[in-house]
Specification:
two-stranded antiparallel ribbon; 39% helix; 237 residues; binds FE2/S2 (inorganic) cluster; 8 helices; 5 strands; mainly alpha; binds iron/sulfur cluster; elongated
Length: 237
């Protein structure tokens, strides 16, 4: 569908243009939006060739046409609305919340972090789960049911390195088993398409390194346990 609007009578963002079209020309035009300030992540779409949040991205103020599409390679429900069901269930599967094994001490209200530990999750916690990165990732296009995609992997990393979380090993175990992290080819399309200027490519690289370290430690532990078992057995013979 093509629409013509008077940009002198319209706000500067792509979302302003879409709302103007919906209000004045075509009430059936369907898109998601909520916060209008880049926080809820619901207005992600392909805007003149790149993924962005329509509420915080300005359209060019010239007479050239603008092209607006739904997020790439996603099932379209209607117009600019894509089906996010799988994305949300993948997010749920990583248990994206603080998990502890030790109980709080009496009268303890908070889990304190050092300033340095807190700084480690900068650039990760700001993710608004818009799915712009994953839907621009070729590995995610090819097998979204197996490879979890940059957004989910970056959020996994965010919990793995949180000094307050006590399920680091279990989270890393999952990375190897279910998440197919090896499918990431480090192309960087995810980071180039993140409207919040985050860097999922780098987060996945660091998560891969942590996973490799974890795997080595686990192998060493297994070898040590086997050696102990052998010693005990030979002592009994
Ligand atoms: S990393 Fe960026 S593009 Fe990916 S879901 Fe988060 S905010 Fe959106
Ligand atoms: S409307 Fe919330 S991020 Fe755009």
């Amino acid at each position: 569908m093509s629409y013509y609007i008077d940009i002198d009578q319209c706000g500067p963002m792509y979302l302003d243009a879409l709302i103007k079209i919906k209000n004045e020309i075509d009430p059936t035009l369907t898109f998601r939006r909520s916060c209008r300030e880049g926080i809820c992540g619901s207005c992600a779409m392909a805007l003149d060739g790149r993924h962005h949040l329509a509420c915080i991205f300005q359209y060019p103020r010239n007479l050239d046409p603008s092209f607006i599409y739904p997020l790439n390679m996603q099932t379209v429900v209607k117009d600019l609305v894509v089906d996010m069901t799988m994305f949300y269930s993948q997010y749920k599967s990583i248990e994206p919340y603080l998990k502890r094994k030790t109980l709080k001490a009496k009268d303890q209200k908070e889990y304190i972090q050092t300033i340095e530990d807190r700084a480690k999750i900068d650039g990760l916690y700001e993710c608004v789960l818009c799915n712009s990165c994953s839907s621009s990732c070729p590995s995610y296009w090819w097998h979204p049911n197996e490879f979890q995609g940059p957004s989910i992997l970056m959020q996994t990393f965010r919990w793995v390195i949180d000094s307050r979380d006590e399920f680091r090993e279990e989270r890393l175990e999952k990375v190897g088993n279910d998440m197919k992290i090896g499918e990431c080819e480090q192309l960087g399309s995810c980071s180039a398409n993140c409207p919040k200027q985050l860097n999922p490519r780098k987060a996945i690289k660091e998560l891969k390194e942590l996973y490799e370290e974890y795997k080595k430690t686990k192998e060493l532990k297994t070898v040590t346990v086997l050696e102990e078992v052998e010693k005990i057995e030979s002592a009994h013979h």
